[in-house]
Amino acid sequence: MARKPKGEVIRLGGLKRPMPPADLCEPLPPWRFVPAVDLTEWLMAVFVSETGLLANPEHAHLRQANIACLWANRPLVVKMNRAVAMAEMPQPRGNAWTAGRAEQQLEDWFGYEPDFLLTFDAVWWVEADDASACATVEHELFHCGQQRDVFGAPKFGQDGRPTFGIRGHDVEEFVGVVQRYGVGHAAGRTVDLVRAANSAPTIAPALIGAACGTCCRKMA
């Protein structure tokens, strides 16, 4: 697939994204979780594959990852923050029974042990526009990182596969610090973020009003 010329904005009007089962879109108890196999295939084809419509080279390491997705019928609320998506590395903990039960659940859902598990609020998903949905998916994919060695080089296991890990944000700073002291005194890569924000988006604008469960867990 030919690469888009630099500066061209990708329009998402013709993007066909998977939808959750209709009977899952009622945010009522009890909790329900349903494997989203078609969503997994879609995000791998659209964002991770080298020939994807919204291919991002920063996700190249995920081409060797086992990713699985779940639909949830209710949002996750952490300290009054509503999260509509979350990325995690399933690591069953506890005694042999609790860990074994969790491993069996993953096997029953997906037929394999995923490196990363992405969960999405089904009710929010059906109401979101394409750009917001894509931005949320990419936010979670950015959390699905590859570990680095002491020299900053990507780490690989003995089997040649990337050594995966949950990645934090590029930027950790308070808006008030930037407002009072300027970008030059901000922490981390805030300057890079501001430069990116001041440039035109490469994908149709997204209305991001949703929180990420991976981020909320760090706040808790």
From TrEMBL:
InterPro entries found in the cross-reference section: Put_Metallopep
UniProt xrefs under Pfam families: PhageMetallopep
Organism domain of life: Bacteria
Chain ranges of the Putative phage metallopeptidase domain: 41-197
Keywords: Plasmid
Name this polypeptide is given: Putative phage metallopeptidase domain-containing protein
